[in-house]
Specification:
single chain; 179 residues; mainly alpha; 9 helices
């Protein structure tokens, strides 16, 4: 009787998986295997994504203007199903500002840890979320660039001293010694 039970148990036990050919995953028998061809554009995008970061020699800062324009287009489309930018903007300014703050903290952590690659990556995240905040506020990069040009050649200490200090902030802080 024990032999018969062992034979039945052995018959019910799953068979060892066959060796899988390179590039193909095993498909369970109850799921029909659908042969699909991966589009060349997808393969190219995946290959480009996996390549090491190659920085341009000239450091093209115009990418920020293009990024702002892309985010603005996504805001106008309002397609929250496919656009991360549109989704964040739809959640409101506090959420956009919160995301910028989170990314800034992550950047600070990586910079203090002296993790160069992560600092570069987090810097890109901060710039993206800054552009998102500018789009949300209706501010163009040109306005920010103009303010930077205005400050060019002025000592940071002198520029900061020339700013008006908000009285409400000084009252809350109970000091006049805010930098």
């Amino acid at each position: 009787m024990a032999k018969a039970t062992k034979k039945k148990a052995a018959a019910k036990a799953p068979k060892a998986a066959k060796t899988v050919k390179a590039g193909k995953l095993p498909v369970p028998k109850n799921i029909p295997a659908k042969k699909t061809r991966i589009p060349k554009a997808v393969l190219k995008a995946e290959a480009a994504h996996l390549k090491p970061l190659v920085l341009p020699e000239d450091g093209d800062a115009a990418v920020l203007d293009r990024l702002w324009a892309t985010i603005e287009a996504r805001r106008q489309s309002g397609d929250v199903a496919t656009s991360h930018s549109a989704r964040l903007i739809a959640r409101g300014t506090p959420k956009v500002a919160q995301k910028l703050g989170e990314e800034a903290v992550e950047l600070v952590i990586e910079a203090v840890a002296r993790n160069r690659a992560a600092t570069i990556s987090e810097s890109a995240d901060v710039l993206y979320h800054l552009m998102l905040l500018l789009v949300d506020a209706g501010i163009t990069p040109g306005e920010v660039w103009a303010e930077l040009r205005r400050r060019e050649g002025i000592s940071g200490i002198a520029e900061k001293a020339s700013r008006a200090r908000p009285k409400a902030l000084l009252a809350i802080a109970q000091t006049t010694k805010l930098p």
